[in-house]
Amino acid sequence: MRSSPSYGSLILIILILSACGIAVQSGDIKAVDLPEEEQPELSTYMISLQRFSQKLGYSIAERNTMLSLFYVEELEETVEDLIKEVPEHHGAPIAPVAQSIMVSRIDHLEKTIATENWPAVDAGYTKVIDGCNSCHQATQHEFIKILPADTSRQPYNQDFRP
Question: Which of the four CATH numbers 1.20.120, 3.40.50, 1.10.10, 2.40.70 does domain 42-152 have?
Answer without folding.
Answer: 1.20.120
